[in-house]
Amino acid sequence: MTAADGIPAESGGGPAASLRYRVWHCRLPDACEAVDDELAEESPLEIRVKGRAVCVTMRTPGDRLGNACGTYFLTQNDRELAAGFLLSEGVVQGVEDIDHIAACTLAVEGNVLNVFLSPHVAFNEQQLTRHVFASSSCGVCGKASIDAILGGFPSIAPPTTQGAQAHWTIAADVLVSLPDKLRDAQHGFGRTGGLHAAGLFTMQGDLIVAREDVGRHNAVDKVLGHALLNNALPLGRHVLMVSGRVSFEVMQKALAAGVPVVAAVSAPSSLAVAFAQDSGQTLAGFVRDQRFNLYAHPGRVGGLSANGLGSANTKKTPAD
Q1: Are residues 302 and 209 in the same domain?
Q2: How far apart are CA 23 and CA 60, in angstroms?
Q3: Same domain flag for 34 and 48
Q4: Which H or E run contains 256?
Q5: For every residue of 38-93, which 3-state class applies, written as one string?
Q6: Nearest to 303, CA basis, from 24, 26, 23
Q7: Sign of the C-alpha dihedral computed for residues 210, 37, 251 and 56 taken in this order
Q8: Over the stretch 126-167, which tens digit does the pLDDT of each residue have?
Q9: Does the active-site annotation cover 32?
Q10: What's the pTM?
Q11: What is the mean pLDDT of the chain?
């Protein structure tokens, strides 16, 4: 079956991958319980052309294809991502320019693929306009990326550390008030409906600075850059609130500035949660309508019932 415009109908790509986490679902005034939550999977994919690494991008893989290691080597979604990337970069113009796409068999986590171009295609890696990250190793897995980032930025002492909780606690009723305060500062969004926002708040809920941008990561960079230029780093007693979802990069940026609490109106990705657990940061998602989910280090949120907070297990498992 083909679509009306001649493009083959969906076949074999499968749904986007997800992981199930045990998280804390909280609703004011003080109810909090451990529940299962399904998160969109985020993991890095290294794209190579003729064996040379040209890009590492964070993506959501499709259905896993099993192998002897019990992981996945390559998905149809990954093939499509690599082909689309090379098309948009001007490396290829049609399917005839690609000889084949193969997994790097030395990458046990299945996150490296090689694109082999047809003999008539001349490749100059300097023509690429995006160099997200280049790695000489054969394989960049989510955990390895987290360790690499933590090697550059110190982790934050978790709230169970002596003395930390008293300094880094935000009341639950203050946390749920942040989305409205951020929205009130989104003047550009009010006029256009097309901008992301990030805001830096004190633990008492006072807005320090809010910035907007068409790119969510740019909005975060503007807020953190404001703090840096005003010699306010590290931001150890502040909360970063974002208007959309939370990705790995948002958590990494917050860690670079020493932000212990990150909150969002929407969902975090699986790698954002894994990063927060390792970095010691508190991560709250779906903060709206007097409720929120806590995905890592809930001890920095005060005013909640302890029932459920101690029993939740945030280890990930593949979703069905």
Answers
A1: yes
A2: 21
A3: no
A4: helix 248-256
A5: EEECCEEEEEEECCEEEEEEEECCCCCCECCCCCECCCHHHHHHHHHHHHHCCCCC
A6: 26
A7: negative
A8: 766 555 444 333 344 555 555 666 667 889 988 865 444 445
A9: no
A10: 0.78
A11: 80
Q: Encode pLDDT of 28-56 as tens digits.
A: 987 889 999 888 888 888 888 988 888 88
The predicted pLDDT at position 61 comes to 76
77: pLDDT confidence band, cut at 50, 70 and 90?
Answer: confident
Nearest to 293 by CA among 42, 41, 40, 37: 37
Q: Is the pLDDT reported for residue 121 higher than 70?
A: yes
Catalytic residue, chosen from 32, 55, 104, 138, is 138
**Claim to verify: residue 191 and residue 93 sit in the same structural domain:** no
Same domain, 28 and 99: no
pLDDT tens track for 178-215:
999 999 999 988 888 889 999 999 999 999 999 999 88
CATH of the domain at 227: 3.40.140.10
The pLDDT value recorded for residue 31 is: 84
Residue 168, judged by CB atoms within 10 A of its CB (0-12, 13-18, 19+), counts as buried
Q: Considering Cα of 38, then 150, then 212, then 172, what sign does the dihedral take?
A: positive
H-helix segments, 89-236: 142-152, 164-167, 172-175, 178-184, 187-192, 216-229
Which of 181-214 are b and which e, b meaning 16 or more Cβ less than 10 Å from the residue's Cβ? bbeebbebbeeeeebbbbbbbebebeebbbbbbe
By the 8 A CB rule, do 64 and 50 touch? no
Domain total in the chain: 2
Question: Mean pLDDT, to the nearest integer, of 54-61?
Answer: 81
Q: Which residue has the tokens 């294809």?
A: 65
> Residue 269 is encoded by which pair of tokens?
């990705």
Tell me the HSE value of 101 on the side-chain side, using a 13 A CA sphere. 23
For residues 137 and 134, give the distance between their C-alpha atoms in angstroms, rounded to a whole number.
9
Angstrom CA distances, 237 to 74, 209, 265, 307, stand at 42, 14, 20, 26
